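Format notes (please read before filing issues)

Several people have asked whether sequences and structure tokens are stored in separate files. They are not. Every record keeps both together, in the order shown below: the sequence lines, then the token lines. Line labels are part of the format and must not be stripped during preprocessing.
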Amino acid sequence: MPLPLNDREIVVGVTGSIAAYKVADWVRSLRRDGARVTVIMTAAGARFVSPLTFAALSGSRVHTGMFDATAPETIPHIDLARRCALLLVAPATATTIARLAHGLADDLLATVALATEAPVMVCPAMNSKMFLHPATTANLATLRGHGYRVVEPASGNMACGEEGPGRLAEWETVRHAILATFAAQDLAGRAVLVTAGPTREPLDPVRFLSNRSTGKMGYAVAAAASQRGARVTLVSGPTDLAAPPGVEMIRITTALEMHQAVLDRASEMDVVVKAAAVSDFRPAEQASHKLKKATTTATIALAANPDILLTLGERRGNRPCPLLVGFAAESREHLNEGRRKLRAKNLDLMVVNDITASDCGFAVDTNRVTLLDRNDAVEELPLLTKDETAHRIWNRIVKLLKD
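Then the structure lines:
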């Protein structure tokens, strides 16, 4: 299956912060995503984590000095600058940020930063007072002026015992920024609404009707749109997933709440993607107290929930926007059901998947879908990660927007 970073070479610059230990796992994650990773460590960085650790995790030698005694004919800072697709400086200390801001070339990392034409991403990590000092603020502004991408640090408890901004950003935030760096910005300026996850329809304060959706596919669709430059609103039912970075999150519980949230915002959108598994029915009555087995019948009266996509399709009539995309999770007659729903709901694209397969559908990280559009075009995608599936769906949506 294709991997997100597609054999790109990422040079990771590790500097002298206690947060250096976190970056060891980042290197491993980058390799899982298909990247080739080379690590540069400053002298201070090598005092926090051994270069041997990064060599084992990256699968390549770690560079710690300006000159390579084992290959004196090479010029490391030029070679690394030419090879890298991205220079990731993490953790970036106040000293390193100052060095980069003022163009000093007194160590290998700073020299590579000066010599490379690749994007440079800086992830600050330091004491809160150091981070908030006017000198650091000015230096970060200078880096942004140079075109460097600064991933803002998180706030929280520091190793020094203080609390505030300056903690190294979480990996998911940084990974999102890296993927956005390499993604086509073909959704820039577009407003997108995505729904994800299940809904829960309460029977009483304890019990509810729901389904097996985990929200993984919808969250991947939202994240991919954000990486490609869209302004994304994610309306999510209850899940265990963290909100994708850079996405406006609206959490709901019931189908009626999702219906209202989507309809309130749909007219402002260029694209609406309904990836949520919305409950078709809800209990006709919700008990205010827990129902007791001894006094409850075995039959539950149900009421139909509104069909959100059907409502949107009827509202827009023949107008092309917002472009409407539906998902159909089917256990049989997949394509016939997908085509029926596409036409009945006045959609532009339907994403159909087989929920009976063990490697796609609910609660797994892969999916195999078929794309059906209103012009009867059919595209069968292979088994892919849900992240890659999301980008392939957006590839088709972008073409529909251009048409």
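For reference, the curators noted about this record: The longest strand covers residues 323-330. DSSP finds 14 helices and 22 strands in the chain.
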